[in-house]
Amino acid sequence: MDLTSAEFFRAFLMTLIAGLATGVGGLMAVRRRRLDQRFLSLALGFSAGVMIYVSFVEMLPKAQESLSGHYGEAAGPWVATLAFFAGIGLIALIDHVIPEAENPHEPKDWNDMDPEAAGQPEQKRQALLRMGLFSALAISIHNFPEGFATFMSALEDPALGLSITVAIAIHNIPEGISVAVPVYYATNSRRRALRYAFLSGVAEPLGALVGFLLLRPWLDARLLGLVFAAVAGIMVYISLDELLPSAEKYGCHHHAIMGVVSGMAVMALSLLIL
């Protein structure tokens, strides 16, 4: 794969922006600023719509075309389909090893986190600190494949990469909140809460670099096809397992669906125009 330094840094910058959006959530948490619940529901649904549409309309067909050129018209789509479900399997396995009690995709309520209001300040603080640290670890593990997905998409098509960057960044904001809120209440330290929120997002560009460096020696049209199909699977799983349930928890069913349809429409228009 021929790659200029400008293309590499552009793709890496997009991945970095998407990852560090966790810091935006952390900043909102330590400043005790609440997102409008309806807006957040629409935004998360929008993010899911972008990812689902681009996975099925752009990435999977590209993967099938690329793999058909290598394996033939009959076998190529089968290989792409297997890679697609392998991507789903990978991200599902990562979800499986993350403790459910520390799931970072559960919305956090500021008042419920207050240890003084709970009547057991010290015990509550210890539990909250553990929750925040596990959330940061879980998000870091999760962000590895997300970072690689964003990076590879941006390398292949900058316009596609920009759309995915925006979608991933939106979905990372509540993740940053889920890290910062419990750490802030456990330690009463804005700086520490913000640091953990930012660090959980660093795994995204790190995952992009590690994945790219490991695969670069073998990165030809066949491997790109496999990667694109797997990335499509990863993004569909993230949308269905994380974004849509979170969108409904923050708002209501119709807000989430309106966001999904809007995300699909914007993505469709951008692909037609660009």
Q: Which regions have little confidence, pLDDT < 50, spanning 5+ residues? A: 103-107
Mean pLDDT rating: 82
Shape: globular
Estimate nothing, just give the exact number of structural domains. 1
Overall number of strands: 0
Estimate the helix proportion, in percent.
over 70%
Number of helices, where a helix is a run of at least 4 consecutive DSSP H or I residues: 11
Largest sheet: none
Beginning-to-end CA distance, first to last residue: 23 Å
- Derived from helix and strand composition plus strand pairing, the structural class reads mainly alpha
Order of helices and strands: HHHHHHHHHHH
Q: Please identify the oligomeric state.
A: single chain
Computed Rg: 19 Å
User: What percent strand?
Assistant: under 5%
